Amino acid sequence: MLYSTIRPMFDNEVLSQIQFMIKPIKHVYAVLILVHIVSWNAFCNQNGFTTEQFGFFESHIRPILIENCYSCHASNTKQEGGLMLDSRSGWKKGGYRGPAIIPGDADNSLLIQIISYTNPDLQMHPKSQLSGQIIGHFRSWVHMGAPDPRTEQTKPNGISLFDIKSRSNFWCYQPVKVTIPPEVQNKEWVANPIDQFVLARLEGEGLTPADPADKRTLIRRVTYVLTGLPPTPKEVDTFLADTSENAYTGMVNRLLDSPHFGERWARHWMDLVRYAETRGHEGDYPIQNVWPYRDYLIRAFNNDIPYNQFVREHIAGDLLGNPRIHPELGYNESVMGTAFYHLGEATHSPVDILEDEAVRIDNMIDVTSKTFLGLTVGCARCHDHKFDAISTKDYYSLFAIMANSRMTYASIHNPDKLANQAKTLRTEKSKIRQMLIDSWQIRTKNLGRYLVATSGIRNQAQEYFETKSQRHDFSQDLIIADFEGQDYGDWQATGEAFGLKPARGNLEFQKDVIGFKGIGFANSLSDGDKAQGMLTSPKFQVRRKFVNFLIGGGNYHNKTCVNLVIDDQIVRTATGNNQAKLAAVTWNVSEFADKTARIEIVDKHSGGWGHISLDHIALTNLPTSPEFLYSEMAQQATVDDQSLEVDQLIQWANVLKDAKIDKPEHPLYHWFKAIEELRSEAPINLQMSGELKSDLKQKDSAVLGDFRDGDFGNWYLEGIAFGQSSLAEGDILISGKDRQINQLLPSIPSSVGATTQLPGALRSPTFTIEHDFINVHALGHGNKIRIVLHNLQLIRDPIYGGLERQINNSRVQWQKFDVRRWKGHRAYIEMLHGVGFDNFIAVDLVVAHNGELPKSFTIKIQQFSEQVASCEELATLFDQRILSAFNVWKVGTSDRYQLDLPNFLLQHKLLSNSSDLNALILSYSQLETALPLDQRVVAMTDGNSHQMAVYTRGDPRDLAETVSSRFLEVLAGSDTPYQTGTSGRLQLAEDIVDPGNPLTSRVMVNRIWHHLFGRGIVATVDNFGLMGELPSHPKLLDYLASQFVSNGWSVKDLIHTIVNSNTYRMSSQRSPESLKFDPDNRLLQSVNVRRLEAEAIRDGMLAVSGRLNSKMYGQSEVVHLTPFMIGRGKPGQSGPLDGNGRRSIYIEMRRNFLPDMMLTFDLPIPFTTFGRRNSTNVPGQALTLMNSPFVIQQAEYWASQMLKQEIDSLEGRIKWMYQHAYSRSPSEVEVNQAVAMLYKQGREYNIPESKSLYDKRIWKDLGHVLFNSKEFLYIF
After folding, report:
1. Host H or E run for residue 140
2. C-alpha distances in Å from residue 1188, one per residue of 153, 211, 793, 1138
3. What is the pTM of this model?
4. pLDDT the model gives residue 19
5. What is the CATH number of domain 473-621?
6. What does residue 604 show for φ and ψ, rounded to 5 degrees?
7. Burial environment of residue 533 by CB neighbours within 10 A (0 to 12, 13 to 18, 19 or more)
8. Rounded distance between C-alpha atoms, residue 406 and residue 788, angstroms
9. What is the pLDDT of residue 378?
10. N or C: which end of the chain has fewer CB within 10 A?
11. CA proximity to 293, closest of 328, 333, 344
């Protein structure tokens, strides 16, 4: 009976594999009972216990162990205390404290002490204390000698043995057979070999294929299946009018060539790789630069990239010797494929970083194995797979591959083209460097005279300010606003930020505010940092030299600021400094004397420091500090010494405004100090000292990277920025939007060899942290140094914040990382260069050490010591020191202090360029503009080979033997490791796409079949293992798989073949015989009726309504947020209700805020591979179609489009809508029903029947009804 029941599920070949499991044998039950009785008695006698004693165990002991103990003390758990109680050998061996039971001695048995609470040191008990009766049973059992009939052996700590040879006989591991299509009786029905395989099964069971589907049904089915959109009425009419033999094939070809094909099939693939754009968990942090991967998929499917190439790009696209370059866009397509690894969930601050890594990599293995191989390798994390030929060793060999790879944000541009552009830029840059060298001596002549004059300006300004302050009549100041009143008076407030009146001290949202004058001040934080607005003063005339005011708040240019406006032009502006304290600011407005002006206080920023505070705005002739007199003093100085140029001296005078100039580390501090000393006494001795690197051989330290000799050693380079080695000579930094020489760099590796506009990274090999600190000797701007633990990329506070450092220093300095808490952990160091006008990073040493940095790394040296008798001598010495620094720089021997002076001059534009040098820089900057816009994609990059230990029962702290990178033994034929010094991903890619691999082609063919028919030949598309379903047509599967490979792994060719079969072109009308014999339609007597996926429903509505925006590619549309979408990580803004009309594939996929309508229609939660979506039919779907604002909006838009048509009858308009919605005309009954409904709705809206033709409301309602029908939601 059982055999008869399952017969229609499988063909003869599969039945032969499983028939032995269910073959009916007469009297087998009696035989089994007899054997069991004999065996049981023999077992009891052999162990010296009676059957009654074993029965006592089964009745009173085993159930308690299962219920209360197995959750913590079984072979498939963490085995707390090392104790296993799910086998006899487990309690005999015991845990860390020895055997758990001493047979015959209950009082001294640890297990009895634990459950009886007689030992205070042993409290590993159940959640509730066992009853006295149960404890009595355990004591009695132990007194009996602890009879235990369980014969299972405790698995050894680590990897258990299992019979891979027998498991490898399962069908999915067998080679793909080149199968000859079977002979059939009804040869006329056969359009291609697929029909022979299907028809042979049907004929064998006495079934007849369904009739062909009509042309309207076919075009709707094929168009939706291939593009995810409905056919237009014009496309339907064209197909119906084409009576040629090639009409159907031509229609299929058109759809395969449609750009919408890639959008449809890319979305299928995104289900496999759990595509999302955020990490989920409580923060839902964004995964940066993930949308280029989505676009890559669309292009790949549209361009029919061979599937084996597609797989290579996913597994190891960053390692391919000849990456695939897009012929038009110039993109490096191959590297984009690796983004799929990093689409999983992640948390920003895992407490257990080892477990976090294990979970992240487990997800990578799970997705990779299911997607490409149809195997559940993740089931072997804690133990050998319970059903399939996959060992724990297999799992951790793949784990090693993933763990030895790293996440990066790779450039998507052609690496060869970038390299050529970099070479040209280096050539041009070398010309600039040489001209700089040639002109340096002339450019630096007499700089010392400006230095001395500048020092005089400082003193004169201070004296003048003090004198003027004593004499200043404050009653003559013109107060524009002091904000002491009860309101803003004549000032005009717009927006909500400033409220109705000035603030009085702190507001509810604000820290302690200080620095304002009086009791009131203008403050835009009245409604929090989200509010925006502006305060505008009445007009006034500029009748003093200065405008003074107090300002605090956000430092956002043009957004949190105060502006002086004259003739409708902003002539002066200032921002806060991201502090609550108000600081004094002065504007020199003497050039605007007697002009009419107004003040604007602006808040246009929402978010942190999104506010501005202002107080006491006054017109005055006294600035707030001497520095605002520097320009005036400079002009006077050039009158006294006409050898000085006024503009140049004003530039020097502005240097004095730097608050750091009075600190010893400032490059001019010692020089200005010496000038002051010379004015009071002479001669003086001027000397300066610094630090120099030296011997690295120290007992308590280790050098992780030393690049001073021009070699990066075993560190990994990515991109173009760092070049291939360090420089033998000093380099120049051309930076800023104006692209000027802003810094001389010492001869150490940097990311500016060609330009700051090229991406790159420098990474260390993976190492185990063994010291307390890591110090990186580096300089740079706007770039990062990171220590990455166990590939954790979300480096955030509170736990991991100290592992990332932003570099913003113009002098080489030690960047110290405290890694004491991470000793024993795997890590790598990375220097990341982000493209920008000013961004760069340079590094020459990376040192690990304990305690303080060893003295040998910071030997003090004396730079120079000179006796100086006058300011004139000092000026000459200043010029000499600059020239000397330049000379050692150009030959590559400068130390970290010698470049301070020339760099200071460059950065403050105190050196003027010749016209020839400016021309070269302009030519260079024009070459930079030819570089492509920096575009990145989250991707994989390689690391060094690092053996991984097997985690016993999946616990990363319970390590067993080590394994190396390799492929699955059942598919590779051996357990030989990859012979490589890298991760092994490239070898893994080749093993997966090896034509001899029996799974890769079968799995992909089956996925395509599933999407075309609604059910795969193997229904469990992600699991070809023992727990999956067996193939319904195994010979057909192998035939298609072999054809797939022999035809160049072409997805489009395979689809073309399948949809051109008569099997695919059948109607969905089931025969009574098929419904009875094969209720699940596994034999394909007809095609299956199926509901459209969520995206196709939404996109279909957009297409029918006329709102569809066909724009392809680019950043995702922000998801529309409903009031019910709440939680942490919620986006700051909501996207448009209809996503700007774009297809669903372009809607942002935020894990914690997925589009609600699509979720209702079974959009999968992206946490693992979903090759087969659920297709539910629940009340929530009907309610969504009735009440969704999106559905109602599209119905209204559809009605608007319909009213634009030149159709002058209700019947004509109804027909127009039916043709768009269902690809057919309505029947007479349907027209009558629609007319009746229109009139009824018209009465609800009080619309006369004569006006029904033109009122949008009733047509919107009709469109809403049509959207709600099964015919719209299903394909037949």
Report:
1. helix 132-143
2. 59, 38, 38, 11
3. 0.80
4. 39
5. 2.60.120.200
6. -120, 20
7. buried
8. 9
9. 94
10. N
11. 333
* Beta pairing class for 760-763 and 840-849: unpaired
1249 phi and psi angles, rounded to 5 deg:
-60, -30
* Cβ-based neighbours of 1250, under 8 Å, separated by 6 or more: none
Q: How many CB atoms lie within 10 A of CB 501?
A: 16
Question: What pLDDT score does 8 carry?
Answer: 43
pLDDT in tens, 1048-1082: 999 999 999 999 999 999 999 999 999 999 999 99
Strand, coil or helix: 102: coil
Q: How far is CA 617 from CA 471, 585, 621, 629, 756, in A?
A: 21, 10, 13, 19, 42
Confidence (pLDDT) at 47: 61
CA distance 348 to 360: 12
The mean predicted confidence, pLDDT, of the chain is 88
Where is pLDDT greater, at 676 or 390?
390
E-strand ranges in 604-730 read: 612-620, 684-692, 701-706, 716-719
Which pLDDT does position 161 carry in this prediction? Answer: 58
What is the spatial distance between Cα 808 and Cα 1212, in angstroms, rounded to a whole number?
A: 70
pLDDT of residue 807: 92
Amino acid at 1032: S
Residue 1084 — very low, low, confident or very high, per pLDDT cuts 50/70/90? very high
* pLDDT tens digit sequence for 204-224: 999 999 999 999 999 999 999
What is the per-residue pLDDT for 632? 82
If pLDDT is split at 50, 70 and 90, which confidence band does 864 have? low
| CA–CA distance, 1119 with 1207 (Å, rounded to integer) | 37
Structure tokens given for 60: 């009173």
Which pLDDT tens digit goes with each residue over 948-984? 999 998 999 999 999 999 999 999 999 999 988 899 9
Same fold, 473-621 and 701-857: yes
For residue 1120, what are its two tokens?
């529309």
> Rounded to an integer, what distance in angstroms lies between the CA atom of residue 736 and that of residue 784?
19
CA distances from 105 to 109, 820, 1081 (A): 6, 48, 64
Is 1040 exposed, middle or buried (CB count within 10 Å of its CB: 0-12, 13-18, 19+)? buried
In the block, which residue shows the tokens 């559905």?
1191
Tokens (6 digits) for 1076:
């009875």
Amino acid at 447: L
Closest CA to 340 of 321, 366, 359: 366
Q: C-alpha 1181: how far from its chain's center?
A: 31
Domain ranges of the chain: 48-154, 445-459+642-692+861-910, 473-621, 701-857, 1190-1275
What is d(CA 391, CA 971) in angstroms, rounded to the nearest whole number?
A: 12
- Positive or negative torsion for Cα 12, 16, 21, 24: positive
| Backbone torsion region of residue 791, taken as left when φ is above 0, otherwise alpha when ψ lies between -120 and 50, otherwise beta | left
According to the model, what pLDDT value does residue 125 have?
A: 53
Burial class (CB in 10 A: 0-12, 13-18, 19+), 1139: buried
Position 890 pLDDT exceeds 90: no
Which of 593-607, 905-919, 1191-1205 tops mean pLDDT? 1191-1205
HSE, side-chain direction, 13 A CA sphere, residue 589? 31
Measured distance CA(587)–CA(522) in Å, rounded: 19
Task: Provide the residue type at 1209 as one letter.
Answer: S
- Residue range 701-857 forms a domain whose CATH class is mainly beta
Which strand (E) or helix (H) includes residue 815? Answer: strand 804-818
Q: How far apart are CA 696 and CA 703, in angstroms?
A: 7
296 touches 266 (CB < 8 A): no
CA atoms within 13 A on the CB side of 554: 26
Distance CA 219, CA 248 (A): 8
